[in-house]
Amino acid sequence: ILNVEQSPQSLHVQEGDSTNFTCSFPSSNFYALHWYRWETAKSPEALFVMTLNGDEKKKGRISATLNTKEGYSYLYIKGSQPEDSATYLCALEGGTSYGKLTFGQGTILTVHP
Amino acid sequence: NAGVTQTPKFRILKIGQSMTLQCAQDMNHNYMYWYRQDPGMGLKLIYYSVGAGITDKGEVPNGYNVSRSTTEDFPLRLELAAPSQTSVYFCASRNRDTNEKLFFGSGTQLSVL
Predict the structure, then answer these.
(1) Which tens digits make up the pLDDT trace of B31-72?
(2) Do the Cβ atoms of B44 and A104 come within 8 Å?
(3) Chain B touched by A96 (CB under 8 Å)
């Protein structure tokens, strides 16, 4: 079983703050790293899929970076807004099972007005 | 396109009963997945399928069975329901050939009493 760890577990910030979270994973046999945004009572929605070491992706105020050699990815949110409050999940495709996506436990972000 | 359709949305089972959670996608995706949401643990993979006729176990397969007779459908069967299977279940699919993101269904909330 792949060990995908996210930190911190939860985060409270004020509106306008910038923030970032980490996803750590085993660096061997890497295929892809996904980030998802999951609002309460909804289904997860994809933010990014990254496959190459050094990949950087951006969508509005949210961006992500990937380091496959050391086994981590960072998700950044610039100028947090209350509507950014959600659980952010990363998922790793790697190890011995091609196609299998293993999720971390998530980072719960709360943005206070 | 309807995307990924899950039925039912809610269900209450008695201990020992059986049921099938239905999942269908109309995007011609080759890969399909079943996850369960465990509090504080993110999403745990139950089973996945890389194409019709091919399935494989995820992290928590015990107590569940799957089949994939067509590209579109990926039902999840609970044979002898136990309280530990109380959870929210998500079906998801993607086109692995283009390294696409996961598309999720709306979830099935299951309680076993």
Answers:
(1) 999 999 987 778 999 999 999 999 999 999 999 999 999 999
(2) no
(3) no
